[in-house]
């Protein structure tokens, strides 16, 4: 009953197997090997156009360098108030784009409100050296709170970006979970809706460590090579990333693991809805469930081996969480089993 | 016949196997899992004292963050003119310690000359805001050119560091190769000789990606946690590093692979010495061989499948390389076979 | 009728005169001259204890380097949402402390609300590498909106700082205006109430360019010398700053100019209160007046030569500014005359 | 007898007078006033084409931001080994272009040797992420050792820059001294010979504090506004700089002061040449004299009130300075008098 985070899981057996299988033999270093090239091409097939692909070590690196590509002195990037780049990256986005700033935008359930975004960007619209200037907008798909931007939501955000001449970044640490939730293609969820650059995460969805920056503007992409190296993010034996992605994409493993994780969240949501001591904070749309639970019941479940953590109550739930209750987050992954969830349901039923 | 670099090899079978074996199950993220803790302790046993261990993504990160721990405004670190931090890291050390500088020190065969180092540090000895001030000394063990600092060499460098109140960093991307070359213990090669912080590399010696900063001053080490996270170097599923190190240390695999790599270099050196068209640039002491070879012969060998690259002629060989010759570098690894070397020898014999 | 900003004024005649008088002769550069030393000592007399004084080029530099002294990786400084460091410095504080962030705190009339501050700092209270960690609190005295923190207000902020082990910075771009408004001594307004470091501004109060960092912790102050030089903020002919401060302090010129500026704001406030087309946004406490004025009347006044700008309506005035009205800012200085204000009053009576 | 540095002098009476005269009245801040505009235009007349002009606080800032305009990740700028940017700026150029590096180039008497420069740049010529890539070349005019690049020297350096697609920066902290030494126009010494951006210094030549970046590529220049503000280098009362430049250019005061300073160096050189205890290190070409003097004689002169400092013996003088001798630097300025020099001559004869 490990619901703490999808990064508590290890690697999917087919990822592990493929990695082992590629351990022998020699290959050019720094991402110039044959397997590397094959994987870059595979990304192109998946996105239905030529793309530039850059492996990096962490999701934080993917986000930070994506924004760095578009960085300018005095630059400000906009993201949801609860976005990972704003809340959980220790200033790495600002550090890797020196002097840049992040501006929080409000919005219900982890999605930036389009009007709030427009207003936020609008505050800085002119080239004003005192206030600084907008350089990028970032949205998280799926969001930090387990919801998903619909295609039209993305288009609406993109329209703001275009109006202000700004690039649009997608933090896709849980890209696959959103993709299967919407049941659309990667192209539809990204460049066809105005996304310019993607942090494409495989780690949370069954890889050990597989994060890539995917970029559609090939000219601009060249700078990433230098940004990455000077940030100490260039793997020498890059094929250990390629091997993971190779298995990840083979036979649509990535969609399978994401569907499984989402299904487990749906199952968990049903369990919670049927509990007398718990209710959903909001409807889960990917692989995270947020539930308001009687504290005593939650403590008991934790004492019985269920691992999950509490979460700050967002403005949208203000006044809806009683004193004896708290909000908790549950994350499911490729490794979550129906059995675990059912056992947790039994704990909740007491 | 892949002698291009030790990072062209993949992973040792026992590393790959251990990684696969650890893929199942759940574990706390960000290096707080049980396997992680066990591996940190293992480092302590290996170094014969309590140490602080921080996994990072690359050797460049290990070097850069090691120097960042000791960084100060106006800070200058000293290393050999051909050191990786100076020649091959795209300014990452300077970028991750903003405003810092690296000062090249001369010395024969990749080792800093102690007098040159003393003179170099001495130029900046006072607290002078115009020139800046020394903050660290870094030595590479084994060096970029396949030689090794003897224990007394390290002590001599350390004496300079102590005299100026400077910490001493060891770039140990090829730590094991030096260790088995000297046939000493990790403690003897590091803190017992005045080393304060080590970039401990496993990648080149049989891992996929296993780099750690090892630090002996536990108080000071706390800062690395923040430096690492803001540099986007904190792995979420850190156990994929721990699993590699676990196998690396088990049954002294790391010493075995390093001994093999060094032995292969010795064999290659013998092959070269016996060739009519080649001779050694200098005696190899670890797993790299530098040879002066007739260009035509080298080209032929390359055309026949041997992979190796030319190298800039250092000052110490000035005038000794004829017009029809060039200097080439060969790197051996755990994956190099005696057969490869013998086949290469035959190519050289023509 | 120049009310755009106190930096539209030039220099007070006694400042200009003193500067001219010091133009001849030779003096050690970089702040080591006799006049420089005398002025540093004068600062000590004014603050009633030994202080470290560092001249810098701009108020932005004074603020940024003050925070940089206390910077740590992952560091977050707290200031009022409308503070200059957050709104008007183009990311300089973040740039000069690489990777640092500023966290906006709400509060009425430009003063941080103590509970909001406590809550904001409390969000980051533990040593959490993901969220980052608090490193400093900054308050602006007088505030961006012409109000002043009372001594007890400063103590209350300082109590939060002490509770969390944080240093407390005062952005004193308008230090003198606050000082004469409170009618207290510099010591009482700073270190006796828990302030650790001050951006001491002379420019807005009658100097050409005279900004200093004043620090009470002399040990820690040593770092500023390097921070300043690497930020390209070390003047060679520093005596041109010293000469300005020398005249500024002589015969309490600085208090005289600040009193005059404040009195002019009071006179302006009276003029506005007596106008049928204008009213005060809030009571001015230093040298800035914020008034809600009928737009047509404001336009006419501007067309007749009055220079002043509109200002974003803060939350505290929400709903109180009619469609035909706007909020405007007026800044008075040593150079403002009663006659100007009376002429402006006539325009408003129009 | 103050020969320590040209920044030990104060301000020329006409500069001081003009500054005083401009102290009254109101003017737009941040360099948007009428006097500011007039001065920008004056720069255009002086350079015989439209130029972008940005005032900054120090020569270090002018150099650092000039290089920052052309900065790229992994960027390397080339300058003479003894250049101010390399030796005397505490890493400010690297700090204000995060992650950038400076590469020292050898050359006799302060001038980069063209072949050494070509070789240095050539080492990095390809787009190699490991080594980094060249981004700019910087030359100092007049040089740190009182010599001057002839127009053809500049053309030769510029040819290297063009060949490698690099911009060419001139550190003109002593621009005027070089200009009158060559007896050419500012246009001839800069853009007509391939200079792209100039650190135009007035401080050492009679101003209090007057440093400007002058740029010929007006499109590219826009970025400086943001670079400057985020580096805390934007003066609010910028007219105090404009007033200095206004007087500096009026009636060719700047050429007059530079000619005087150079003439004083020539006079000092003659004094030294005629001394039995001193001789020139090399022929002075601007306002600095380097002399080899008997230490005892030098000490006596210093004890009698002459202020000058010793200087590291460059490679070009190796073996030419006896044990009882040392190399000393003397700098003359607008404020140096013939009488001072003659008195110093008597001391040397003494």
Textual characterization of the structure:
Four copies of one chain form a homotetramer. Chain A has helices at residues 13-21, 34-47, 59-69, 84-87, 92-96, 114-122, 151-163, 175-182, 186-189, 218-230, 239-249, 253-273, 295-303, 338-349, and strands at 52-56, 75-80, 101-105, 133-140, 168-172, 197-201, 211-215, 278-280, 288-294, 309-310, 325-331. Chain A is of the alpha/beta class and 350 residues long. Chain A folds into two domains: 13-251, 3-Layer(aba) Sandwich (Aspartate Aminotransferase, domain 2); 254-349, Aspartate Aminotransferase, domain 1 (Alpha-Beta Complex). The mean pLDDT of chain A is 96. Chains in contact: A-B, A-C, A-D, B-C, B-D, C-D. At the A-B interface, helix 1, helix 3, helix 5 and helix 10 of A face helix 1, helix 3, helix 5 and helix 10 of B.
In CATH, what is the homologous superfamily of the largest domain in chain A? Answer: Type I PLP-dependent aspartate aminotransferase-like (Major domain)
Rounded Rg of chain A: 20 Å
Which chains make the largest contact? A-B, 57 and 57 residues
Provide the CATH top-level class of the largest domain in chain A.
Alpha Beta
Helix count of chain A?
14
The secondary-structure element order of chain A is: HHEHEHHEHEHEHHEEHHHEEHEEH
Percent helix range of chain A:
40-55%
Topology:
4 copies of one chain form a homotetramer.
Chain A: H1 13-21, H2 34-47, E1 52-56, H3 59-69, E2 75-80, H4 84-87, H5 92-96, E3 101-105, H6 114-122, E4 133-140, H7 151-163, E5 168-172, H8 175-182, H9 186-189, E6 197-201, E7 211-215, H10 218-230, H11 239-249, H12 253-273, E8 278-280, E9 288-294, H13 295-303, E10 309-310, E11 325-331, H14 338-349
Parallel strand pairs in A: 2-3, 2-4, 4-5, 5-6
Antiparallel strand pairs in A: 1-7, 6-7, 8-9, 9-11, 10-11
Helix pairs in contact in A: 1-11, 2-11, 3-10, 8-12, 12-14
